[in-house]
Prior knowledge:
Layout: H1 6-15, H2 25-28, H3 34-39, H4 45-54, H5 63-66, H6 69-78, H7 84-94, H8 104-112, H9 118-125, H10 129-132, H11 138-151, H12 165-176, H13 179-182, H14 191-198, H15 206-215, H16 218-223, H17 225-234, H18 240-250, H19 253-265, H20 270-276, H21 284-290, H22 306-314
Helix pairs in contact: 4-6, 4-7, 7-9, 8-9, 9-11, 14-17, 15-17, 15-18, 18-19, 18-20, 19-21
Amino acid sequence: MHSPSPALIATLRALRGETDPHIVAPALDDLWFAPILALAPNVDPIIGAPGALAGERPDFLAPDIRTSPALSAAVASLIGTNASNGVLPTWAKVAPTGWGVPHAIALFDAVQRNRCPHWAAAALIGSCDASAALPSHAYAIARAVRRWGQITPDDPTAWMNHLASVDRDRLVNALRTCPNSAAACWPWLPEADAADIVHRIGREYLSLALAAYAAASPVARARHTDILSALMHHARQDDLIALTRLAVASRMDAAWATVVRILHEHPDAARDVVAAAPWDDVRTDVQTSSCPPLPTMTCAPPSRSPAMCTLIRRRPRG
């Protein structure tokens, strides 16, 4: 008989009301079991929340739990454990501003022990010369810059003011030489640097760039109007989900017009619009474009009832 895995034992303990994060840590280190902690009704909320983080589902966190001092303490206690590699990257995206500053030494140590990604530690600590030295690859730099920029929505490039010029230049130059990785953080770069990158992005990364602008603040989008226009000009059917979310978030007429253009070219892509946003958030003219009526049909066979004819006429395409 096989012994139950540590992750299973930890999950069962959580289901029975365990409240010590270290006891349930083996479950947080397992992508199969971590979401169970987040969804099971009998799990303590401060245990379920790290489960949502480890399962990469921050949307499972209730607003009051996300800002709870108890959750902050629980996550802090896991720094450097095997579970921190799963918990900290998602926490880096939603943690309260400045959360990592008092835990900087522990985060640096966790990075050295391969128990925390470099970018996650940098994002949690905030922009400073010490944190800027952590990420070296462009994709990691982009993730850190994205978080630093989101912290100050009214000044998306304020993160640069906290870095020495040599560190700032190193990060920006790394992003300029790898535009595909930089796509995730364009809204939080100076306009000149982002404009230099936009024309060198690979076609397959366009949706990533559009998604970044959907997650950015109105100020960030306003500063990059020309860049957004260039992105939307090149948008195609594969970008429709990201484009729709950008249109909903920004309410930009140009974004909705691009959605309509793509729908006229690819009527069957209407399903992507429906999948991308709640129907009530979709502008009326786009709803009309998404559901083109079929031509009126004449029911020649006598066996077909008027009700069936109406159903056929109203049936959506696709």
